[in-house]
Design goal:
This protein is an alpha/beta fold and about 250 residues long. The protein has 9 helices and 10 strands. The protein has helices at about 40-45, 80-85, 100-110, 120-130, 145-160, 175-190, 205-210, 230-235, 240-245, and strands at about 1-10, 15-25, 30-35, 55-60, 65, 85-90, 165-170, 195-200, 215-220, 220-225. The chain binds adenosine-5'-triphosphate and magnesium ion (MG).
Length: about 250
């Protein structure tokens, strides 16, 4: 479904991703863990073309885009725009439009990107808000919602794009601890329904529970990957062992 091949990325001479390859199968939930600065967000942003790789290939559903340092005009490619709408992203800080209601946020992409008729978009948008447990909040503005509610609006917005996959970048790290559970429950439900997802998270208990596969990144490399049970209970590398020791109470 999504294939990332030999991806490299530098910012100002610093190589942040150093030859990353992995793939995500349809219906699979891949969790990415790793220390701060290891390149997790950069990798995720590449899978949504918010960052453009220096080298490598990204294949989404057999549509292949090849990157190299000499051809960097991809940023405006119609092809990239179309691929981007196949893969939705949910951010740590929600990224909602503050001047739009919950429903307004959810229908924006369906109307502007998917070119859906407004009435249909509203009907569908209400259904997605209901799905994330926000019926009755359609007309509330972001400042009238809790962090957990805002993130659930962001998830409903991602769903409204009818994506083939959803990428989550630390969806609960900006939330007060008591609000984390309601967002994780929504993501877990999507996993059970077979949504293809890539989730960067520091919630190790959740990673273990919901992930089909866990990838551990450090220093711009994938150091280790495998089923959660293996990665969490039987880590091979010293770096992963050391990283997990910080979470020893949850894993
Ligand atoms: N736009 C940018 N310009 C320059 N450097 C960047 C940029 N984006 C990321 N970096 C650098 O790339 C490295 C990897 O950053 P990235 O945000 O991918 O890490 P991360 O694993 O997501 O970390 P965290 O867990 O703190 O979110 C860091 O050293 C960061 O400073
Ligand atoms: Mg990050």
């Amino acid at each position: 479904m999504i294939q990332v091949k030999d991806i490299k990325k530098s910012f100002h001479q610093t190589e942040v991703l150093k030859n990353i390859s992995f793939q995500v199968e349809q219906g699979e939930v891949v969790v990415i863990i790793g220390p701060s600065g290891s390149g997790k967000s950069t990798l995720l942003r590449m899978m949504n073309f918010l960052e453009i790789p220096d080298e490598g290939q990204i294949i989404i559903d057999s549509k292949k885009i090849h990157f190299d340092r000499k051809r960097r005009k991809h940023r405006n490619d119609a092809e990239i725009c179309s691929l981007r709408s196949d893969v939705s992203m949910v951010f740590q800080n929600f990224n909602l439009f503050e001047h739009k209601t919950a429903l307004g946020n959810v229908i924006e992409g369906s109307i502007m990107v998917r070119k859906m008729a407004k009435e249909k978009a509203i009907h569908q948008g209400k259904e997605f808000l209901q799905k994330v447990g926000l019926e009755g909040k359609e007309n509330n503005y972001p400042h009238e919602l809790s962090g957990g509610q805002k993130q659930r609006v962001a998830i409903a917005r991602a769903l409204a794009m009818r994506p083939k996959a959803i990428l989550f970048d630390e969806p609960t790290s900006a939330l007060d601890p008591e609000l984390v559970g309601e967002v994780l429950a929504v993501i877990k439900k999507l996993a059970e329904e077979g949504m293809t997802m890539v989730i960067v998270t520091h919630e190790m208990g959740f990673a273990k529970e919901v992930g089909d596969r866990v990838i551990f990144m450090d220093g711009g490399y994938i150091v280790e990957s495998g089923p959660p049970k293996k990665v969490f209970e039987n880590p091979e590398s010293e770096r992963l062992k050391q990283f997990l020791s910080r979470f020893s109470n949850v894993v």
